[in-house]
Every structure is written in structure tokens, then in C-alpha cells.
Amino acid sequence: MAILYVISKYVTFFGAALKAFWEQIFCRIMKIPVQDARWTQANELCGHIDHDFSESKAKTFLICYLPGMMNRFLAYGMFISSYIGLFYIEVSPSDAIFWIYLVMFYLAVSLLCNNAPLYEDALWNWDLLYGKDQKTNIAVKILGFIPSAYFIASAWLEKYAVSLLIYVIAALIGIFVI
Amino acid sequence: MSDEKKEKTTPETPEEEKVDGDWKWDAAVPETKTDDISIDDLSFAAEKDDEPAEKKEEKADEKSVEKADGAKKESKKKNEGKKDNKKSEKNSKEEKDNGACIICGKPRRNSGSDLYCADCVRKQTRTYLGIPQFIIAFVMVGFAVFGYITCVSNIQISTLLSKAETLAKELRFGDASSAIVEYSEKVQTLDDATDNFVHFFNSDPNRTPVDFFKDGERSNRILFESFIENFRFDNEYVSAYINMVNAQYPNGLPKSKKYDKMRNTYDFCLEVRAYMNKIQPNWYNFMYTDEKTSKQMIKYDEAIAYLNSVKAETPAQKASDGFFRLVAETIAEKDSASCYKILDNTYKEIGEYGYMFDLIYLQIAWSYEDYDKCVEIGDRMYERNKNDIEGYYYAIKSNILQGKLNEADERCEKMIKENPENLDYFSVKAEVLRRMGDFAGSVEICRQGIAVGMDMQIYNQQAISYMLLDDKTNALEAAKTAYEMAVQVVQSNEVSLEIINTSALIAFLCGDSKTYDQIVALCKDSYGYELEDNVKQCIKGEITFEDIYMKGMGDV
Lengths: 178, 556
Fold this sequence. Notes:
Chain A has about 180 residues and is mainly α.
């Protein structure tokens, strides 16, 4: 399945590049050592950088959350705008705005397909918060539950390129259903 | 990388840590499958080894500097420790608790969760960011800003589009068209705003105005389909539709299924136009004007024989054929049965386009005073298009003339429920209430209607109700207003003359001879028209006002 993952990352090149960029930036800010910054290699690290696990719950959570959040933040406006423009308003290909929306849609999808942390990072975050021997504050456990579960779910979806498939389906729904 | 780390960490690892077994091996060396290491990875490592001697020397220098720095720090710490024994004890406790840096063995950073010393962290958090990534980031941020701006505007305009779509689904095609007009205006506003923004940077007066935001195909479809649902079979509608499609789609309609209805209607209209162009030149030969009566006449038998000779095969041709036959029947003043026969036959032949003949059918039924048929067709038109009030208005009028006032009242309520802004409701409801004998209620509903919008029919009904309440002052005022509006807005002779007759009668009965004379003079000079017979009879005192407006047709 790694090949699917790698293909999805290369297809969504801009999002993958930016995700790795944010990961490096946040690793630097939070002083988490980076082991391997080659984000284009054709394996599970594609679109990510290899950084050390942190023993700090906050750092682990933030390194899972922030890079993806940056990508999502950049993507939402473009995605909603282009989706409405292309599939609801149905601008014609003879208009220049159609092609702008098309580029925006691709960029938005490429960003949204790269919003999850590395699967191992997501599991490590879960283990730190909900592991057997972890003494985590109950409030933190409650507040962190949804995002932590989202990290694992989204990382899993990305691992098997399902996230890209979801957006392809969304586009098909836009073309044939809406 | 992991091999390098082992080489570095193993000799420098403090003995205590090994014995205690507290070492975070997983954190230091993540579980890496050695099976997956490829030749590329090895070559990457080899590349590092093959670094030029100069670089190695530089690195060695850096290391020596760093070591010197570390030594300085250690000595500083020792000095501090000497100064304060308690503090050094505390430090040594922390060292025991936290362990040393897993890479070099030096003291870790202050944070309890860190496994590294400050120097190692500084080295390893060096990022490997390239210029392309910064460029991508900047471009993305630019697109994102643009995305948010267009997102807000697209949400605004799509709300209006959604409203139009919902109205079309509710078969309120008139309202849907109005919503699309509102939508287009909003799109234009956005374009104007964009143009002003561009003008800020480029104030060239010869610059082409920005046409950035577009109405899109969905709004076109709603607009065209609303037009189709309101289609009347006549030359004007056929030409208007063909011209609209040609203007919007110069390269032809798209082949998608979504356009089937538009395309089929377009083909239908093209065929109708071709057939009419073929028939019309000869058709005028059968028409003539009677010199005595100045009435338009037709050589009926010749016209029908000509139509029989031209074979109509397709639905569009049959629709056109039926239309010409109806014209012949009407001009020749044939009986209703023959007209109905032609209409029913045309309905049957043209199938889905039969509705285009509804209004013609209704007008013929009305002229033959076939009120049951009027109600049937009016209902049918209303069910097809809830904003097609014309048919429903005739249905209510028919109910009134049939004396089915409760049924008429129910239809009025249904009409206002689905067309809350329609002014016809107030005039027709006022008439129903008047016929029921509720004159005050009739005046009140007219007052409500006037608050919603100015309409001459409402003033006309109010004037009649005031007269029946014997309130001549208000009746005259309302009648004058209705007359002034009728003169200004001559929608059709039928409507305006009805109001003119009523206004003249009320002016006469209220003793306003000046207004009465003015109306009579206008009728003669402008229209060559005299007041209706029942108005004249009423003026002579042969019949009463109630005879006309409470017992009779109400149309004068």
C-alpha cells in the first residue's frame, strides 16, 4: 500500500511540500530534533520529515496539530470558493475564472490531502495521552480526545491514500449530482 | 542516521543510566526496519562520508568550537557549584533524575521531558529548508488570501442562486426569474468592486472593465427553464426564446443531459418558426377587411383547404397548424365546439408542449362564457406554474360569475399563500367579498392592497364598494385615482376601458360632471370609443348600480 501513499503524495506535491515545510518550522520552534528532512523520498516518510519523539505531551500534540492546521487554514477558503464556483455556480470553461477555480481546487485538495501527522506520531500522541502508565489530567484527556482521534483517523486515511479518493469522489459528486 | 547515532551515543553513555534501565531507547532510536533500507539510503550516507576535506575540516572546527563552548559552560557550572553547595546538590539530583544527553552525555536542557543537551538540540534543529519550499509557501498564502475573498463572495451569490433554485423546484417560476435577476445584479456588484480595486492600480480610462465574476450555467438554466414554463404559443415568445438561446450560446447548447429541456424547446421553436414562415405569406391572401363593418374577415374554406394541403408531420408543425386553424375559426366566428375540437386535437398531437396553448384555450373558453372550462384550464395553468396568476385569475372570476363564491374565496386564499406579493389577490378578493355583501370588508382588503402596492384594479374595486356603502366622497376619490392610473398605464384596452367605464359612471352618480365629461371626451378623442350600454342605461336610470356590480358580470 506504500506505493499508493507515495503516489498520492506526489500527486498532491504542493501540499506535501508545504506540510514538510511547516513540520520543519514547528520542529525548530519547539526545539524537536529533526533526524531526516528528506520529504520527497519514496517511502512512508514522503511528505513528512523524520523528527524525534518528544516526551512532552504538549509538544507532541502541537507537532501533530499545527502543520496540518496550517495546511487546512490555507485550503478551506480555496476549497469552498472553487467548489462553489466549479460545481454549483458552474462557471463555463470559456471564462478565465474557470481555470483559476480549477487551480485553486487542485491546490486546496493537495493541501487537504496533507493535513494529517505521520501515523507513528499520531499513535505516539495517543499513547502519551491515553497510555496505561500515563498520568494525564482528565480535562486534557477530554479536550484532547477528538483531535487525537482525528490525528489517527486522518493519518490512517492518508496512509492508504483514502483522503485523495474522498476528494476525487467529492469532485465527481459535484459534476454529476449537485 | 541511526548508525551514526549509535556510534556517537554508545561510548559516551553514562554507566548509571545503563544500570538503571531508564534509558529511552525508543525515543532515541525510533524503531526502524532495517529491511527497508534501500541502496539510495546507503548512497545518501556514502555521500555524506564523501564530503570534501575542506568541509570536514570546517565541521571539525565547528565541533572543536562547540566542545570549547561546552567546556566553558561546564567550568562555569563548576564555579557556580563551588559558590553554592546547596545549589550544586540540587543540580546533581536533577542530573540523576533526568539523565544526560543521549547523544553526547552532557547535561540535558532544563525541561524535564528533554533527552538532549542544548548543543545537540541546536545542531539537530537546523532545518533543511530550500528556496522552492519558501516560494511554494508564499504562493499558497497568496492563493489562500484570494480563496478567502472569493469564498465570501461566492457564498453570498450562491445563497441567492440557491433561493432561485428552490423557487423553481416549488414551481414558482416567476419568483425564480426575479431571484435570478437579483443574483445577476449581485454578481455585477462584485465585478464593480473588483473593477474599482483594479482601478486603484491601473487608472487608464481606456482599460477594459473587469468581468471577473460570472453568472454561471446554473443560473442560465433556471432562467431559461422559467421562461419555458411560462411559454405562450405565439410568434413573440418563439422569437424571443430563439434569440435568447442564440445570444447566450452562439456555438449551440451544450450536449449535457441538463440541457435536454432547453435544447428540445429550442428545436421545437426553430421548427415552429420555419413552418410559420412557410405558411404566413400565403395566409395573408385569405385575410381581408370588410368595408362596411371595418372588421377583419377570412376566406374560411380556402384557408382551411390550404392548411389541409400543407402536411404537418412533426409536433411543432402540428402545433403551428392548430394555431392557424384556431385563428381561422375565431375570425370566422365559428361555434365553441369546433374550436375545442381543434384545441383538443392539437393538445393530443403535440404532447408535452400542449401547455403552450393553455392561455389561448382559456381566452376562447372565456369568450364563449364556458366558465367550467375556464376553471379547469386556470387550475391546470396554476398547478404548472404557481406564479402564473393570469389563468388562476380567470378561474376565480369564473367562480364569481358562476355564483360559487366560497370556491372563489378558497382560490383567493390559495393564490395569496403562494404569491404573497401579488396585487391581483386584493382586487379579486375585494370583488368576492363585495359579491358576498361584505362591502366594508371589501373596502378594507383594498386598503391593505394599496398599502402593499399601487394598482388601478384595487382602486376600482374600492370605488365600487364605497358606492355600495353610499360613501360617495371616497368613492369619487378612488374612482378618480383608478382613472388617472388607467390613463397612465394602458396595460390593455380591456382593462383600462373597464376602469374608464366604472370611473365615468361613479363620477356621474357622484355629481362630478367635470370628471365625467373629461372621461367621455378622452374615450371619443383617443380611442374612438363610447361608454358601454349598461353604463348609459344606468346614467339614464333604467338600471341601478347594484344591477351592474352585484347581479351582472361586473365587467362594464
